[in-house]
Protein 1
Amino acid sequence: MASKLIKLFSPMTLGGKKNPVHLQHRVIMAPLTRLRTGESGVPTDLVVEYYVQRTTPGGLLIAEATNISPTARGYFGSPGLYTVEQVEGWKKVTSAVHEKGGKIFVQLWHSGRVGHPLNQPDGKSLPVSSSAVGWEDVTSRPVTAEGRHSYVTPRALETDEIPGIVEDYKRAAEYAIEAGFDGVELHGANGYLLEQFLCDSVNCRTDVYGGSVENRARLTLDTLDAVLSKLDSSQVGIRLSPFGSTFGCTDSTPEETYSYLIKKLNPLDLAYLHIVEPRGLHPTGPIQPEGGTTAFSRPLYDGVLMTSSGFDRASGIEVTENGAANCVAYGRPFISNPDLVHRLEVDAPWNTWDFKTFYMPEEGPLSLGYTDYPALEAKLFSALNLGGKKAPVQLQHRVVMAPLTRLRTGEQGVPTDLVAEYYAQRATPGGLLIAEATNISPSARGYFGAPGLFTTEQVEGWKKVTRAVHAKGGKIFVQLWHTGRVSHPLNQPGGILPVSSSAVGLDDVRTSSVTREGRAKYITPRALETHEIPGIVADYKRAAENAIAAGFDGVELHGANGYLLEQFLCDGVNRRTDSYGGSVENRARLMLEALNAVLSSLDSSQVAIRLSPFGVTFGCTDSTPKNTYGYVINQLNALNLAYLHIVEPRGYHFRGPLVPENGTTPFCRSLYKGVLMTSSGFDRATGVEITKNGLADCVAYGRPFISNPDFVHRLKTDAPWNDWDRKTYYVPANGPLSLGYTDYPTLDMKASLCTHFSDHNGILMLNLVPPQWRDPMQWGFFCAASFVRGISCFMRYAGVFCVFFGMALIFVIGGLVAHTIVSMVLLFNIFFNYALCCATDPGIITASWKKEENFNDDEEEDLEEEDDDDVETGFLPRIRPSAMAPGGTCTSGSSRVQLPLVQLVDPQSVHVYFFTFLVWLAVGSYYAAFTSYKSAYTELTREQYVKMLVLAEVAPLNIPAAATLQFAFAMAAAVGLAVSILATWHVYLIATAQTSVELQINRHPRNRRLHGGRVTSPYSTGSVHGNWELVFGRCNYKILSLMPSTRLPPNPRTLKKRQSVTRNISSARSSEEKPHLDEAAHSPDIIV
């Protein structure tokens, strides 16, 4: 079950009309004056580094207070936005932040009286303010080029000068957008110019900018209007400090003043209103209202409310959870913690900031206390540049999704929208995905359902995938694949033999080839002729070019896990005597030729390779792996590839020789000079450790990505992982293609949820609504089926309840009315149960509107039933009527479906139920009548009872007519009791037979939407009834141990007819070899 997401770390959208800014979390970096830009106010590369360090994907930074004009400057070293040079300097900052997936606003600033003549353009003019009201503060002095000096009394702005100030704000806002900022924040807080006009302790004017609150707020509102005339409202925010006293700027009636101003902001639909709590550096001043400034502002402001000053993790979570604020801006914690967002997420301790380096350090470089604070996060979550010559791919973290074969593309190998959704779910900003192994040609295919990159349709299909990944800021490579001997003629064009380095078969009883007709044993391949090998190289080159055309950022050649390139490399398979066999140089020739061919069309930054030096997958081994791979890796050093991907031999097929003492990764690290990626069997601790000690630059995770679409987030926060279901690694045996593919839950799952039951251990789970269920027709079937199923289960339990309740009434109460009620209820229960069972019997329904030939066709085949202790199957072909055992048991390809504590029904055992019926009838009748009359006529002796019940001597007992009628009802109740119990028990037992009728019906092509719109499917399609069963059939399998099912086997006539057809087809094919369905013991490259 997904854990509850803390709202502080959940996505949100800022306000605005046209293009509101979307954030991935609500932790904002507040504007922080740092004074690192010198006299010119131009941001340097050091400033770029500072902001980049604090950027997170989808996070918002508010750049430090930035002067709107030369006369606005209050502090030496503060940046500006009024010259071309400053704009160009800021462009470097915004570009770097955007490259990491972050958002950035800038705070526009006029300091007013909080300055000094030395900071003015001429070095002697007085700073300006609303009035000539000075302020003496012994704790704070303005920073100038000559050091700190005392504040001076400013001069009051003339009325005709004020429009010039408004124009400066407007121009600076335009410069900000030109510089690449996502928006601007007007600084109307902390005692600077806009607040100096707003607060009556400073504003003593008598013109239209002084006196009433309307006049004092005029400059702020005029400035906002001017900026909004050039920018969209989604690009504009404002900061206020209603109850602050910074720099002596206070108001006598702050509630009235700020209530007026905040209400005026509502129609403007700003990106946000930023409120400062007066508990920071200057806590003196009037007492804030009860609940704080944020609580005061929330009822007044309708838009996005940001709060700041003095918040820690707990208070930040609280203020967002209770809705008092939409997001929280942190200031000083961001100074000393460049990874503050991560620290907040994992509740890690903070670095302590050094107040002496908040601004320019007195001694030391400008980086002191600026860009030198250490990050908490492990190297695994830090940025990385892949290798290559021209434009290496830049990653924001080192958690890579390994290539995972999922077989969801059918006969044509064309990725569908479902595939695009799958990869988009797992994409992260700046994260690398390696798309599943993809065939380079028709003859390269080893598995039915694997995608390709050799047709135009396949390229177009992959374009949807790459666009979806890039839209989320991710990077994606694709693995180029030739399976070689790991194939079957059914997967080859024209049914030809698969190829390899030599005609050496794969003798592995644990695995088999996945074909359109099910699983088939591997066969001995044919050896490639020498003149054919250049064609294989050309296929790799062409597929690589198609990959780039499809939008991939690069390609990874699959030279591992027993496939073709490794079949040439390892002397356990390669027995050739030509230039591609014998010495290690010859055996490595095909791999290096393929790499060089791809490099002739792609930059080295777009090319990588995967190797498994000490693996034994598919029996592909080498007698001297250290020598062989030592040679290959040394050859790779000269190519400057994007990365070398190493597979540790500790996955699913760990058999064979021991790896080097320290493991495969250290062995390769000592040889390879470029970016080294390792994979197979890593968890969080080992991934962190191996990147920390430098043995690998990044770690590829496989299976965890299958069941955790938000796996990177889970690793960062050390959250628990979803368990993967191995039965749905490939095409699920029963259910839509999305099952076990796009329906795993995330930690912060916010989409609509639908309750369904997982195939995994029968545990109730909540999962994302599968794409197939987003069709209104599907929901109609789902709702109708759920209603009938619910009514059935209710009535079945109601029947049991009525039985016990009726027994209680008969044995305890007695009486004519009670017996009448009980009898009617029990009889109704019997009628309802049998009527409902008949109505929902798949055999009856299909017999009435479906022809027998729809269940059988020319491709009929028998499925061999496996032993109960076999390993579960990851891929199941079509279920045919021949899978129906005589007793109604669905063999379902690999394992029979049988519930605990419930015996399956044998149609030959009907006499058992008849005998049981007689027993219940006799026992129920005797005790019902006996106890009823015992309660009504306590004066009767036992002998009289015997005469009444056994000898039917009623007349001599002088029993009144009413009592005789009561006896009749008692007998009816007894019969109803017996029949009801028998009906309930009977239906419950035979319902657990779990026939394959619904799977047979599912072969009807009407249900094309379940497999991406294709006309035919080798897996499961469905009719109207098939839809119904397909939607809630999974629920049925898992809750039968808790409540009975309504599903019955088909009626005997229909079943007998089908079995007859099946026997005829089976006998006609008796001479043909049937494919054997074995367990899914796939290679590590498929499951990683």
Protein 2
Amino acid sequence: MCVIAMVGMGGIGKTTLAQLVYNDTRVKEHFNLEAWVCVSEEFDVFKVTKTILEAVTLSTCDIKDLNRLQVTLKEKLKGKKFLLVLDDVWNEDYVDWEVLRNSFKSGVQGSKVIVTTRNASVASVMRPIATHHLKQLPDEDCWSLFAKHAFDDSNSEAHLELEVIGRQIVKQCKGLPLAAKTIGALLRSKLDVDEWDKILKSELWDLSNDGGNILPALRLSYKYLPSPLKQCFAYCSIFPKDYIVKKDQLVLLWMAEGFLQQYKNKTMEEVGDEYFLNLVSRSLFQQSSSDKSHFIMHDLVNDLAKFVSGQFSFRLEGDYSHELVNKTRHLSYFKTRFDSSKKFEDLYKAKRLRTFLSLTLPPSSETFYLTTKFTHDLLPMLRCLRVLSLSHYSNMTDLPDSIGKIKHLRYLNLSFTAVKRLPDSICKLCNLQTLKLLGCRYLAVLPKDMWRLINLRHLDITETSIKEMPIQLGRLKCLHTLTTFIISKHSGSCIGELGKLSSLRGMLSILELQNVASPTDALNAGLKDKRYLEELVLEWSADTRVSESERTVLDSLQPHTNLKSLTMNYYSGKSIPDWVGHHSFSKITCMHLKNCKYCFFLPPLGQLPSLQDLSIVGFDGVVKVGTEFYCSGSSSINPFGALKVIRFDQMLKWKEWSSFASENEGGAFNHLEELYIQNFPELMGGLPVHFPSLIKLVIIECPQLVASLPRAPALWEMQLLHCNEILLKKLPSRMQKLKVGGFGALKSLPEGMMEGKTCLQELEFCDCSSLMSFPRSGIPSTLKTLKITNCRKLEFPMNQNFSSLERFFLIDSCDSLSTFPLDLFPKLYDIIIRGCRNLESLSIPKEYLHDLVTSQIQIHDCPNFVSFPKGGLPTPNLTWFWVTNCRILRSLPEKMHIFLTSLKYLRIEDCPEVESFPEGGLPSNLNLISILSCDKLIASCKGWGLQQLPSVRKLSISGKSEDVKSFPEEGFLPTNLTFLYISKFPAIESLNKKGLQHLTSLEQLWIQDCPKLKYMPDEGFPASLSFLRINECPLLKKSCQRKKGKEWHKIAHIDCVMIDEELIA
């Protein structure tokens, strides 16, 4: 691991330079893991390590112990060549950095850490191999940057007087790019000599530095913001440094706070867009290079926002909630897995709070839980709230009726919660502007008086279970966003209500269209007049039968030509109206036509000049894709000129695909990058012969397709599944990823199949039930990943060269294999074997004297597996060892404590004959142990010697012993344990206080499926315990009821208590 340092003063461009390096595709090719972390002033080894781990795993982390954090981070980095950027580092304590550096040493050679800092001393303690000192820009370069932002086309010649003043202003910027850019952006709209002279002579250039490291140029930029923009900018202080801000989301928050006013016939959203773009133009926000809808604040700009907002805004971080004051109006925080009442106990100080904003680190698959005390006890007290965001809390099933008393509420986000109903009182929130219910899949109905929300502008009910719209929805005249409209057969709002919503924009899905009473009703929806709609989904029921009237209905649903995306699903007409595919829809980039099973022809989609993504699915009546697909007879447009991705799927009668022109160049698809052809039992004719830009080709379930594969010189990835085996003889040579499978009758792979594949790195065979052998020519020497699935007759090729292989998966295959020779794989990191019926052992010859580099071994569902190599596994890098359902295995590898010195994770499950751990015990570095359904092993638990394992932090134990009445025995558990999971002890009645009281580091306790358990320890749990989860323990559930149960007083001090998925504390 090498460190590269970038040193320079704030605003000099360190972060910008690091971003250029980090986002460069040439750089990314050299690393298989990248992470970016903003460190900033308040350096704490624990906090920084946790932030790095979250950046690496893309999920939140609740570990509260530094050692555990480091162990976990090491494991995530182990065996990977990583690039880590530590941005804006301040700490120069050598000991702290050595502790942090220790976590990076598990990466492979070539890993890099880039450090940006303002202090050369900070760089030196990291012992960099290179230090780049960024200097201030020379005056002329600084002037050029300033001019680029101050003048159109960077041209100052038309404003020579301004140039004289501007060059003096540039000298005040002292060569700092951020200062030059910010001041240039400020003056762009002020091409007046007096205005420029005022900036030059401003006292802020000489102001004392009471704002910390805030540049005078940034203060000037803020000073000259229009008043409405000042409060919008200050509000952004609720976002942490390096947080990705989405423009549309921020505008809705500004609107809810009353920062936006309508004027000159512009909507508040349009005003908000202008405000935001104004801040961007002044360089107070920077657009993300990876996503144009994402924006980031420079850390110095974030400092400025925090400075000017003062005590009015507060970010709830760590243990600083006590700093909340009565003045606090806006609060934000990052969700953690369990947000208990303790986290919010100081909110009682801030009863005038206007913003309560929970943030999530994107992207996150984490499950979050919120204490019910917040919604039922604290929330009713926050009567001044305008913004309330409680998204992604999976245990939130309802809102209290008191929500209707928060009269000022304008923004409510309950997305991705388990809310089943909304209280009727929500309809009293007459000021509500935004209601987000995205992903509330248990929500089946909206309150019937929704029409009373007369100021509602945005209603998102995507991915809910709502069956019909409430009546009189057309009275919500302010609605801009209505993501979904469901047409009911008997009640609710009819489709004509949409015609009253003239301001709709963005995305609209209209579902259950078979319930439209008549084409006239459809016409009354007025889709053709909704010029701001960008995405439209039209969907009928899956069981709708063929109907001639549906064509007329669909004709009446023609949208405005500004549309960018169209999806049609389960349309039951025999033909598609002419507007679908008409060249006047010049802005459409995405189209999905699905399950139009009665249509015989495809519309002329080649006429759409901007179409980039196309899916055609379930057109059962189509026999031939011919010239009609490319264009209408009178069109001169080059068909599919912009198309990048096309998917054909489930067209049961399709037999032929005709090329656009007679020449063999396939000119209609010159920019196509991905082609998917799936589930076509009758397709026989050839494909278009030439795809010059094709990168990925997938052909699945096309047994009659025997023609040559298209020429695709750029092809990188290919999948051939359940096709004619003749295609295997014609594979392109430059591929890097290849998956073949479903060739049931194939006994051997074609001899030339692997020849010339000099770039192949990933190869997968699957579902070849008759396949018996590999090609004699062997596998390519470049291969790094090999996966074999459901090829039971395949003879494992012991004579092949596997010297380059790094990952190997053997799933339900190679029944003849009885011994797996580890010595054939000198570079293998990962071994995963599952369902190999006759595998008996892993083997290493006695004469093999080298250590293996393997870091992960998994063996699952191998009924005859009995042994590991005699003498032990020489795998000093092994970190993960997992054996499941090997029911005659009697012992684990010998000398684990000697050979497996890096082992962190041990999981043994459903191995009933394993009686004990090997002589000498377990490796001392173990961090996690799971012993589940191993009756004999659990019976000998007294001899496990867990007390001799100082690094064990997590223990899961599950058994069926009828003899255990109390658990755990005194002295059984290791002192440093932080997580304990107990499951399936049918006779256990109580938890033993003597076995738990010494666990002074225990943070989480999970108890599951112990039906007779009814008593907690007499003296309660260790004070360190912050989370208790109880599932399927009916007696305990009753005795631990909040404030009522007999055992409640023993657990009342615990931050989070969850019983059967309900967070009761």
Protein 3
Amino acid sequence: MATPLPKPIKGQADWRDYQAVQLENGVTVLAIHDKESKMTAMSCCVNVGASADPRSLSGLAHFVEHMCFLGSSKYPGENEYKRYLASHGGRSNASTSMHLTNYKFEVLAEHAEKAIDIFSNFFIDPLFTSSGTIREVQAVDSENSKNLVADGRRRLQILKDLVDPDHYYSKFSTGNSKTLDTSDEAKSEYTRSALLAFHAKHYMPENFIVVVAGPQPLETLQDWIASRFSRIEAKSFPSTGHMSDVERLVAEAAKDAPPYSFKEPTPEHNSLFEGSIKSSMPLLLTTKPLRSMRKLVLMFPMKSDRKNPDKSPSSFLSHLLGHEGKGSIFAALQTQGMISSLSSGARTSGPDFKLFSIDLELTEKGEEHWEQVTETVFAYCRMLNKELEKESKDESKEMRRIWEEQSKLDKIFFDQTSPGGAYSYAPNLSERVNAYGTKECLSAGSMLNEDAGTFPLDSVIETAKFLVPDNCLVERCSAKAWEEAEKNADSGSFGFERKTEQWYDVEYIVAPIAAETTKAWSEDVPNSKSANDSTELRLPSENRYIPRSLDLCEELPEEARVPRIEKPIDPPNLLINNEAGRLYHRLDDRYALPKSSVIVLIRNAATVHKKANDGKWDYDGKTGLMSTMLSVMFSQAMAQETYDADLAGLDYNLSLGPSGVKLHCYGFSDRVPDLATTVLENFLAGDFLKDAYFVSTKDRLVRGLDTFFSSRRADSLGIYYRDALLASKDGSINDSLLQTKDIDMDALREHHKSIVENKEVLLDCLFTGNVSAMTAKSLFSDVDATICRATGSSLEARPSLSFVPATDLERRVMPQEDIELHFQSENPQEENGAVVFTYQSPFPSFRGKGLSHDSSLKSTSAMRLLCHMLREPLFDELRTKQQLGYIVSSYYDRGFSARQPDDDKVLDPSMVPVDFITISVLSRKLPPIDIATRIDEFLEQFRNSLHEMPESEIRDHADALSKKLLKPIQKLLTESNTHFGKIHRFAPECFSTTDEGKSEPLPWKTDEDLAECIQSLSRAELVETWDRIIGPASRARIVSCVYGNTFPLTDKSNGGGLMSSFGLGSRSAKITNDFSKLVNYRQRMGVFNNQATVVSKRSYSSIASPRNFLGSSSSKLTSTIPIVGMGVVGVAGMVGWTMMRNQKATSSK
């Protein structure tokens, strides 16, 4: 009989129902009925993690997590679970932290029961085979190798190296093939024995928290879980005198792990640092990053306050120390040009310790004066202590005011936030149940019962006492800091000690901090070197952005005043369509929240173009770089002014891109219009164009470009080179670096002026959410008036656009054309190589009925379905069975193409989407060319499997994909971005007149059209599409190979051998290891336009779409030109530090 547990306290906007029980065997179950969900998601959280690892078997908990997925007695197939999920629209993953192991999946609701059965059997009776042990150790090792080039991971391992070696936090949690040795049969069996012992010791039913969420009734969900998880039995673990050596090892290591569940007593404080480290504080730690950064991090070990989330003193202090408003540390240092960002909070924590950190991103000036920057931080800490002393004497109530303000906002957020997707919700909730119990798993940390009278003054005073120099580890992380420390260490300077971390083999240097510096940090003594006058430092003022009203719009009908996510989304209404632009509006009738979103796009060619003498706008890379600098400078300048808005749930983003100036504001409805107009007015006024912001921004951009290649993982570089060929108008990275260095403040002011004074602008605005049509029109009028004032022209005097700005570009790869790109990674730490296959469809992607030919609808639908079918078997073969590498992914991708014809200065406003299938592998097991061969071999096998696949399996995939496309949107922000994406790309084409009130033909329902078509696809159509896209006889493919240190690129003279590796009957191969030749080659490639180019009797034929504004660009097959030689680096539309296309690759365990 299950024992009922308290139901969670939930917010007003949470439509879900909850029920919690504890099964007889001790498993805790939380069932969630979500009437709006089409998916069922589940998480199983096990109360054990890497803190329980034996030190001689580092990564054992992580390894158990991997092995649990590899079959059970009832379902012995190693890929049965993933295959079932993949064919029914599902996905899965798992993670291991220091204290918990979390397994999760989601699947279409109608297929949930069998998925739960397969999942539960991993914990009831896992196989843990010897063969799986050997292979999965290689997966763990590959995962670890991926992490070796991540600065965050490297710095974390250095921190672990400094920690008391007897502290569990010092353990190496990931593991590798050395710590989990399977190099021979005996060692492999020993590792497997440890796996079995660890599982028996820790995977006990009382350690399990199971959360399941779906549209099924609560009773059904609970029955599904209870009938299965009640079968988990505590494994018999021998008593001390009867243990084997490996069991004794596991049992002893278990004592390291502190109690972590809410049911267990709070452990005593366990200091991270002991001995020489603790006694030497303040201690200077210097680390060398791979990516360009200038970090200064102050770390303070203190007691844990994890069990008091509503009265957390460290969270309150984090709010004050991380504040960015007037009087804050950030404001004082940013004003002087010392820092560009600041954050504070837990660097890491456990149930028995916390390492609090203040993280500052320094400017060049700030790095020069890092000691004075630190002095400012400690001056603020001393100010806090003085204010707390006043509070204790009732001489001030400012701290109580801030505490009450925080609690008020937290309560608003708790009640006015709708549920998100269950796939992330379930694992997060299972961990919170473990930490806080079922009753407070949703509300813990939301301060529901807090006000000014509950301010925990004593605990805040106690915690603030930790924020002193004698309890501080100071980390400097930059190339310059490393050079200074290395010079001191090599010259034998007192106390400078060079060390090497064991697992990542990364160097670091520790040194004492001079006594006079420590004194300056500790006392309120005037110092000529001080970064600022400490009198500038003060507590935050009242937040003027707290919402005044949470009422829903009066225009909203009564039935829409409760959440109804199942209701289909009506498209936005076109309220205004005139010379100024277009205003779309949608009054929310689904979420019942007092929130709104406004997106304003000022179409303005001057952001990335220059106007030639003939009046034609020409793309200019340097202009684009200056626009990036303007947007970053503006963000920095507005930080102090808008930080309160951010705290009050308001967010904004202003960016300058190919289409012009885009402003997006989101948050509580009554504040959004004011924020939008304030931000826009400040940008157009140009007061942010100050030297301090310019120096900081330029420095950051230069450093990002300078270390671009030496800091990135091989697979991201593979995508970079691919996009450099397909989607870039820019030259090399070095070209962009030189252009950036050449930009000065005068040039930026002139560029800003050219944007603001360009009269050829057009507005596209979408206002959606809890907002009336009248309010939307008023804001549109305000925005247009603001622009008119800035440009100095009235609406009537504004000229028509000579250009609809859009520099989106995809070049066409011709059928039967294989293009190979081979580059050596310049990251000195990169052991992995990478292979990225990209297949381009000859048909334009489907845009919507009326805008696209039926062939585009069929092609896009078939490509998406093939990708859905391909993902799991590719992963199973190359990752699980062949163990080629940790990252093995395949996904559908989409680009966009538009161009300005050479013979006309007016652009036909047509945006052409382009379909791609991408396959990516990151590996150090084989050279990239061998990995490519393995991919090709798999693809050939998969093509055969399409003929043999049962019809029911094809229908399962089609059904799953179509239902995922029709899954209701659950967040207003997602809805707004989805709708504006269509407005942004297709409105210029769909509106050739300014007939106000005209019913717009924008393609709002493309997902519905795709879902319907996917359901109708036959096996023959899938095979035909496969042969057209993937088949060697007609494919248009790019193979991008990047070589790591394990298998470096050595063939510098000819590529004949490489061509045969990929050829398989294709008619062309281009091999380039020289970026300048890549640029030359792309100049011969045509732009992907609104026609299809297919192979027909050894010639090309074009199929025009109904709306073809760009004309034909079919061309003859380019002859094969092998291009060989070591290359220089390049840029591919990379502006600043942002990659060109946001990939949606996934790589789950």
